[in-house]
């Protein structure tokens, strides 16, 4: 039986309850857990859309980022690829949000439009400022726009968490309440990890391409520029994506003393010995 099939038949909650198919080896069980965890949301249990999973980050981002870095000179292409990038980011940010509180279609639409508009406006504004600067500086406009857009896109797509909070649990996974403070900390950590994830892929290839485009090899074969840039971005992302996702644990913790007074009092009333609570920060 294949690992994906096992994962479908024996999801994480059943395995936790001790329901294991006869003859299933420990290696198969762990493989099934990895597959299940990569495809299903840890709070809602819903299956995450394919391009919203972390496993899709490298192939999707290498294509989009490579094109942003290649077609940065003309305004229409800047607008198009920034829109594509932020549309993809919106799917990823929503798919990997924390908590199980639903968000309305209206809230989702407003967040998407605001995040995408902010990203495009940032890219165009920075592009206009670099017109009279060396070409190499212009190559870094996409990174600056992406970094700024992450500060807009992620909080907006996860605004519901900032309004009602996210679930916090004890060490055993018992839900204790909802915390806006934990949501703020989790979103901040995700913003930092996403910006760090973009640094190698959007800072190293421009320098290399700026050098290569001055050589006769690429001057005679300009059509090689885009695939070469995409390949360089992909190489960087292979290492940067898992490294930056691991900067902060997905199951993060926060001291009870830092929580909201009401929630802190509620937790103390339930169990005065609890000093640290845990939450899913999202990815």
From TrEMBL:
It comes from the Eukaryota. It catalyses: L-serine(in) = L-serine(out). One of its GO terms (cellular component) is mitochondrial inner membrane. Belongs to the sideroflexin family. One of its GO terms (molecular function) is monoatomic ion transmembrane transporter activity. It is a multi-pass membrane protein. One of its GO terms (biological process) is serine import into mitochondrion. It is found in: Mitochondrion membrane. Keywords: Amino-acid transport, Membrane, Mitochondrion, One-carbon metabolism, Transmembrane, Transmembrane helix, Transport. The chain crosses the membrane at residues 187-208, 228-248. Mitochondrial serine transporter that mediates transport of serine into mitochondria, an important step of the one-carbon metabolism pathway. Mitochondrial serine is converted to glycine and formate, which then exits to the cytosol where it is used to generate the charged folates that serve as one-carbon donors. It comes from Molossus molossus (Pallas' mastiff bat). PANTHER family: SIDEROFLEXIN, SIDEROFLEXIN-3. This is Sideroflexin-3.
């Amino acid at each position: 039986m294949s690992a994906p099939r096992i994962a479908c038949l024996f999801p994480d909650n059943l395995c936790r309850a001790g329901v294991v198919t006869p003859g299933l080896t420990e290696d198969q069980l762990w493989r099934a857990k990895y597959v299940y965890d990569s495809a299903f949301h840890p709070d809602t249990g819903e299956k995450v859309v394919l391009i919203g999973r972390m496993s899709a980050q490298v192939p999707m981002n290498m294509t989009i980022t490579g094109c942003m870095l290649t077609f940065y000179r003309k305004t229409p292409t800047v607008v198009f690829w920034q829109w594509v990038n932020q549309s993809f980011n919106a799917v990823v940010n929503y798919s990997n949000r924390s908590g199980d509180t639903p968000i309305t279609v209206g809230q989702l639409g407003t967040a998407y439009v605001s995040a995408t508009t902010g990203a495009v406006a940032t890219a165009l504004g920075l592009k206009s400022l670099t017109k009279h600067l060396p070409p190499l500086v212009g190559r870094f406009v996409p990174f600056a726009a992406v970094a700024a857009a992450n500060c807009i896109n992620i909080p907006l797509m996860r605004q519901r968490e900032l309004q009602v909070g996210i679930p916090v649990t004890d060490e055993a996974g018992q839900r204790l309440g909802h915390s806006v403070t934990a949501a703020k900390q989790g979103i901040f950590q995700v913003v930092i990890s996403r910006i760090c994830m973009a640094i190698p892929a959007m800072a190293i290839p421009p320098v290399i391409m700026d050098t290569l485009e001055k050589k006769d090899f690429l001057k005679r074969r300009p059509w090689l520029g885009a695939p070469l840039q995409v390949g360089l971005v992909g190489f960087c992302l292979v290492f940067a994506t898992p490294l930056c996702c691991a900067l902060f644990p997905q199951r993060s913790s926060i001291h009870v003393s830092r929580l909201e007074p009401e929630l802190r009092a509620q937790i103390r009333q339930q169990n005065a010995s609890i000093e640290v609570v845990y939450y899913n920060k999202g990815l």
